[in-house]
Write a structure and sequence with these properties.
The chain has 120 residues and is of the alpha+beta class. It has one domain: Hotdog Thioesterase (Thiol Ester Dehydrase, Chain A, Roll), CATH 3.10.129.10. Helices cover 23% and strands 34% of the residues. It has helices spanning 8-25, 29-34, 106-109, and strands at 37-38, 41-48, 59-66, 71-80, 83-93, 95-96. It has a 4-stranded antiparallel sheet with strand order 2-5-4-3, with helices on one face. It has a two-stranded antiparallel ribbon with strand order 1-6. The termini are far apart.
Length: 120
Amino acid sequence: MGIVYYANYFVWMEIARTEWFNSVCGRSYEEIEKAGLFLPVLEARCQYKSPVKYPEEVKITLTARIISKIYIEFYYDISVEGKARAIGFTKHIFMNKSGRVCKIPKDIYYSIDAETMPKQ
């Protein structure tokens, strides 16, 4: 069909999220896991606007929002040459290696833009 398989959009979102940790938080997702923290996905959505065709190159803009001391949401704008192709969303909870819910580490919490912080 010449278009990208729909599930690949979720892979792109995961790649964008991983890069976000590197660039915004200053540590890789691998380092976060080695420290005993995990971010399982609680919810994921993708609204497709128009298909990405081969060999188009996508740009993903990610915005993070902390909604409590244990939850973080990511919003994804997927575009090609400035034209929206899809918007996505994932919600995550922080857990330790024992599977217990834990607070978002301070370095991650404070690396999020002040506008996205929850009202205290």
